[in-house]
Design goal:
Elements (H helix, E strand, L loop, with lengths): L10 H27 L4 H8 L5 H34 L7 E4 L5 H4 L3 H4 L2 E13 L2 H4 L7 H16 L4 E5 L6 E5 L10 E3 L13 E3 L4 E4 L5 H5 L18 E3 L2 H4 L13 E3 L9 E7 L2 H11 L5 E3 L6 E2 L8 E2 L6 E4 L3 E8 L13 E7 L16 E8 L2 H4 L7 H16 L4 E5 L6 E5 L10 E3 L13 E3 L4 E4 L5 H5 L18 E3 L19 E4 L8 E7 L2 H11 L5 E4 L5 E2 L8 E2 L6 E4 L3 E8 L13 E11 L5 E10 L7 H22 L4 E11 L10 H4 L3 H4 L5 E3 L2 E2 L21 H9 L1 H4 L17 E5 L8 E11 L11 E9 L7
Parallel strand pairs: 2-25, 10-17, 24-37, 32-33
Antiparallel strand pairs: 1-26, 2-38, 3-4, 3-23, 4-7, 5-9, 6-7, 8-18, 10-14, 11-14, 12-13, 15-16, 18-19, 19-22, 20-24, 21-22, 25-29, 26-29, 27-28, 30-31, 31-32, 33-36, 34-35, 37-38
Length: 823
Amino acid sequence: MALKTSPFPNGFAAGIHAVGWVFILPCFWCLNHLLAVCHPTTQEQTQQLEQECYLYPLKAFFGSIILFILFLTTAPLAFLGFLLWAPVQAYRRPFCYYRAMQSSPEKETHRGFELVGKASFGFVTANVCLLPEAIARFNNIGHTRRRAAAIGQHIVQGVCRPDIQIFVDSPSSCGTLSPSSSIFPVANSYTYGATDRQAQPLENHYLDSSTGNVAMPCDVTEESWAESPSVLLSSNQNPNQQGQMVHRSAHRALLSQGLHQQDDVPWEVSSMFPASVDIVCLEEVFDKGAAQKLIQALRPVFGHILYDVGVYACYPPCRCSSFKFMNSGLFLASRFPVLEARYCCFPNCCWEDALAAKGLLSAKGVCRPDIHSFADSPSSCGTTANVCLLPEGLSRFNNLAHTQRRAAAIGQHIVQGVCRPDIQIFVDSPSSCGTLSPSSSIFPVANSYTYGATDRQAQPLENHYLDSSTGNVAMPCDVTEESWAESPSVLLSSNQNPNQQGQMVHRSAHRALLSQGLHQQDDVPWEVSSMFPASVDIVCLEEVFDKGAAQKLIQALRPVFGHILYDVGVYACYPPCRCSSFKFMNSGLFLASRFPVLEARYCCFPNCRGEDALAAKGLLSAKVLIGQNQKRKKVVGYINCTHLDAPEGDGQIRYEQLNMITKWTGDFQTAYRQPDEDVAFDVLCGDFNFDNCSPGDAREQNHCLFEEYRDPCRAGPGKEKPWAIGTLLEQPTLYEDDVNTPENLQRYAQFPCLQFTVFSLCLCQPWIGRRIDYILYRESTISKHCRTEIEAETLITQLAGLTDHIPVGLRLNVTMNSDCIDE
């Protein structure tokens, strides 16, 4: 049965709730901002140092007086609203449900079990610290609703990006270049190389509509591969070598086979800016405020910027016939230091163009030898765009508005594009030399690393060496077929033999970069990524207390996640008629799912104390509809999200809450599980507020819940696996340049020797960060004929500077044996 969207049983109760909240809101807003004015974040303190010394004290003094007067004025109205709002909370269902417009069942369900009997599911959990503005600043984080919108955009950008599998065989055999096995389609970039003709369809290829794979038949020969210039060859390799291929990037290679470019230039239509751009040239940046927004967004990457280019007033001087009201609109951002620059104004512009100082900007830069050596590959990359950042009144004549807001978004998009990994993959037959190479860009980019050590520290790359001049991971010629086949970090397709020569499968280009030589055996691949994993199916967030922030998240996530549970928790007296535990805030739990939510239940922890007792912390359990299996039986999954008590000395309280979670999850499944259903997964995630290393958390570490649910990062009570990384950041360092971008934080997370400066550390082991955010899964409650394997667990740094926690992702592969379904 589908859930109702309204949390109230009838319109009258919902109306009383809405009227009461309208009366409360003005007073709450004044109090919230009054406290916020008096508590700046470290980022705001740094910005204040760049302003006049008297501006902030004046702002704080007069702002506090005005807000305090408004607070006193609206307090009587808020009291009246409270009298209306509080009693009706006893009739409120403890969550709201957003459901996107009805679409076809095929788009909301997973057909993997129905077609092939297996499927892959992605989960993400994150504590996003979206408290009311005043309270969030005590965690050194401000601008709650602005951060909520940015967090939602980052999640969507990450999960909607292409996730490619590359199957490479020797050219005389069959191979496949396959998109992700995710159940939801994603956009890919296409490369066009035709000159005097239209782009031809893929020659000697066919598209398998059932899987979305581009298959290469067995009659593809070495000559046909060598004739395709769209496959880039390394300078030290022979194009006639068996199995030799180079892909500029995984998604660029997807549809480039068969396009014979000859002497033409490859042209790519991409949904993102090229990786590792060195120079950005923009036009029509006329608005000075928009220029400042661009500088603020671009300066972490582009350290040298020319802006406000042009002349004003009479030009040439003393000639009022050509008065310049606006500059040229030119804007140049460069990674290289600018040695010289010159601007020349066009003297012959007419009509409205004569009002702007249009002209030519020329610059001379230097490539620093400490960054780039031109002895290897002298390459650089530039981009240009007319961004139409005119004053607000003028830009609306071009059907564009919100100039400064667009400028900030444009800067963010440029940085996100140019900072993403750009990988070249050199694949040879195992008996020859090969290279897995990062992009040839002159500036290094952050890559994702995969760790697979179990009872040992992650070992260096065996039989590999790192060329410090190029950044390439080289594989010497003594690598044999056996050494390749012994590496479980290379995923093999189900219809291929690991002993075939040159046969490799990479889950994604950047994940394969440093995974060779790491013998994972039965362990879990662990990835540190600067972006959210592609094709995530369920997102669970904690500390989404602010209602406006929840609406911002819904607005950003709803194009991808059509089913959202928010505003989860109880208010006012809980249990009813007991004023000793008044709940001023909800639980902060937030669940977004691609799958329809069939049932949901919330249970409130009765034993929180201190400031945590003011919020309705508890457990949210949901049952989602995945699809059907091959026997047409319904397939469902269970997801549980929680946030435990926070104070360090409350170990006994957290232990009791773990007891409640164990009981409540079982009760929920007993109440709603149907005999004609198959259960594909049972996942528990959230912020547990204790780690697996600190002696003070020993009681929670030994709880029986960890015997039912499996923690992929846990070796045992009080013992982490060597590659496990902390998820809690030190709040005072959130905005430091070393960690305030996803790429920089990724770099710190990958090296234990750097973590002590930005991660909250365990007391007994100063080199281990506190991992308090968990994703656990249980196999005992799923269907007996289902087999679960962990594909990867991911630490995500994309929310750097937006929260004091690092999100965690988990991808599970579930295989269903159709022969045993009826047993």
